[in-house]
Write a structure and sequence with these properties.
106 residues, alpha+beta, four-stranded mixed beta sheet, 2 helices
Length: 106
Amino acid sequence: MIISTMNDLPGYQIEEVMGEVFGLTVRSRNVGSQIGASLKSLVGGELKGMTKMLASGRDDATDQLTEAAEAKGANAVIAFRFDTSELGATWTEICAYGTAVRVNKL
């Protein structure tokens, strides 16, 4: 599966547009992670637990997007993006989305 943030793929011709696809995950931060983040925010620096959680969530959302594209018969996704939002005090929604297409190499 080719995944690209561009609207086209150099060296490929888009044969068919299958439509929008997305992958979605909602993550809950654990209490230990929240306490550590609160303490770390006093002195500054990377919140490694939060970074790990968000990276894992992006991977899961991308895997779901790939499955959705394959289910439509696509072999590529163009205009790929991520979107995140907070749901309540401790939940984070991570959405991966793009346009599923079938491409042929030129």
